[in-house]
Amino acid sequence: MSIQWWGLLLDLWFILACLPFHISAFNLDTDTKHVLRKNGDPGSMFGFSLALHQQLNPVNKKLLLVGAPRAKSLTKAEVTGGIYQCELTTDSKSCERVKFDNNEFLENKDVKDQWMGVRVTSQGPGQSVMTCAHRYQEWSTNPDTPNLVFGQCYILGEDLHKSDAHRIWRRVICDDRKHIKDKPKNPDWFGYCQQGHSAAFAKDNTSLLFGGPGAYQWKGTCFELGDTFRMEIAFFFPGFSIDSGMALTKKGQLTIVSGAPRGGFSGEVAFLKRDPLAERSLSVENILKGPGLASSFGYDIAVVDLNADGWDDLAVGAPEFFLKEGVVGGAVYIYINNRGRQWEKIEPVRLDGNKDSMFGLAVENIGDVNQDGYEDIAVGAPYDGVGRVYLYYGSSGGIHKKTAQIITAESYNIRRFGFSLTGKIDMDDNHYPDLAVGSLSDSIFVYRARPVVNIREDLRITPSTINMAVIFINKGCGSDNICQSNLELQYRFCSRPKLLGQDVFTPLPSERGIPVISAGDEDIALEVNVTNREGDDAHQSHLIIKLPDSLSFSSLHFNHISCNPNDNGTLTDCELGNPFKRDVTFYVILSTSRISLSTTDVNVTLQLETTSVQKIQASEAKAKVVFELHLQVFGLARPSQVSFGGAVKGESAMKSEDDIGTLVEYEFRIWNLGRPLKSFANASLNIYWPKENAAGKWLLYLVQIHSEGIQNVPCSPLKEISPDQHIKEAFSSEDGFSFLSKKRKYKTLTCSDELKCVEIRCPLLGLDSTAVVFLQARLWNSTFIEVPISLMFMVCLQVRLTVFPERKAAIWAKVAWWVIFLSVMVGLLLLALLGFLLWKVTQFVIHTVGGWWEEL
Description:
Domain Integrin alpha second immunoglobulin-like: 477-624
Keywords: Cell adhesion, Glycoprotein, Integrin, Membrane, Receptor, Repeat, Signal, Transmembrane, Transmembrane helix
FG-GAP repeats: 32-95, 283-344, 345-401, 402-464
Helix content: under 10%
GO cellular component, one term: external side of plasma membrane
Number of helices: 6
Largest sheet: 8 strands, mixed
Radius of gyration: 41 Å
Transmembrane segments: 779-803, 815-839
CATH superfamily of the domain at 631-724 and 745-805: ntegrin, alpha v. Chain A, domain 4
Structural class: mainly beta
CATH topology of the domain at 631-724 and 745-805: Immunoglobulin-like
Strand content: 35-45%
């Protein structure tokens, strides 16, 4: 059998080898020896913005332009900001300051703290460069008038020198009397415009695009400068990010796209076009709404043709998007263009980042980096550790959701890597566009693309058929040369806490011998021990791990074994060795992010396989899933003290609920401090209700149950609510009050001794944060009259109700009118007597003092 099997395998290999196939491999070169690093002055925010630029005249050279908005002026006197040009050299300090408008920097105090270089962008090879300072101010000579933060932008030629012809574009939008002569210069209009917070060259190469998020009291606005169109639609922060395309809504028509990360409280992206009916205005074509509250949808945007269909697609960053039940921290939404139609109905593809990573803070069209005919994008996650950059490839279907490459910066002593991105230009002339990444550590990095290696192989065999016999003989497997292995498998579930930065694997707690997985564990580990004791070599040994849908393969904690999971991570093939000779223990890290409240247990199938002779049964690794719900319960009785008294009445003599006794309402308030509960098969409020005393007489007669904060509470058993149907519901009741007797006796009644209690179960359906359950009951007056105890407590779920007998009726009688009249007259008489005595004393003192003065 073994020889036949190997013969069939060899035949199959020859058949597959005769088929032509194609292999592609690509990535940006992340070898530190090949990555170019450029450093700026400490504290200058060198790398806040980036742009790749190609100069054609007077010489042809490629430059990296770097914004440093906190750089000092050329005289080192003030912080003004600036931009730097860097050539593609290995010298980390070879960047030179771009010198323009030096006289203003030296003489005009308006440029202090203006943040020049907050944006820098290139129009393309041999064309202009634009840089902006959104905090440029106009100082006021009047102390009562605030400084006006207009912002300004400069247009530089391809050689990075500013000509006089370009000077008219400096701060022309927010400070030009020609355009706002009828509007006052104050915060209500353009006083805090902050032009240049976002800036770009329009894709039609005839206009400039500016965002002014501070206009209209920070409601924001967008500008197109060419024929001087201006957007007059005000909503939260439009102009925070800006881009354009010539095939977004109609081919050949310029469409401006602007992000408003605070629009609609979750973020919006507006599609703008020149309004044919309103002169010098932009109108809104479409608005894309952010999907999550406060997700900053639209913080950054990129227009890119991902599927090469000639229509521009859109990538929108939402760096503050999160899922309460998951580990998502930031997202990028990919909108694939439907031939310019119904953008608001397009279902976007969501790319998720790691928790608290600010994934999507920077989104960039980096061109076709792997030369497959589709444009690609890069996404920055500057808070993912020290920062990361994720690459995603375009495809005929739109985009590959699987990350093509992750660029990390752990080997560099920096922070916030990936804060800014730029690409789409081939810097080293190998016909592949390169990528530059900025950080907030005054350092930038240039990653050069390596050429894609395409391998095509065509194997042809002549003659087409070969008759052959293949016999494999395994040496070292006994006298019969037959390998009989003895593979055995042991396993256990473990948690993975960290101790001094190292993983420590600890067995999970168990109940009745079954491991228990807590829903709070983001990752767990399956410890696998494979032995081959007293057996021959186990050839082609594998371990097949089949996971349930609630678990997925995350990683492997062992260097000498490789595991290959399928696309969704539920089936993993681990190669143990060929041959497998000695024992091995390794840990398979499993993600629990798919576990839901409906998951009660997990079963993992472990199957050992080998080509050696051995029959191996599959093993089942089982574990129980337990959710620890962070619930708090607080209860009170209203009123907390009630009285009883009067004559004893039989149950048949009671016609209404008022005949039973005082109305008491129990309130149970439940707080959910954890994540929302979506299924409550095991979540309920259980109340032990003191129904009767030891003699079987009524204590608390339950009348009604209702709730607030959640839907109807179907408490059971229903027969415990108003069990005597002949007693009618009372429409009014009066709460009495009396004084406690001087001689008090106490007795506490609980469900554990003298009370007969019934368990009332109230499922908490749909509890997200807070809910209140109310139980209304009547104190059975007759029962307490018959009990010879002056004062007693009933305890129900630590909710105390004090019951005591009423005082005699004399205490409740009204006072006669003559008693009140007589009391008033006596009081007035005493007041008059007191006044007379005071007058007499005063006269005595006056006569005495007067006599002394006469003698003197």
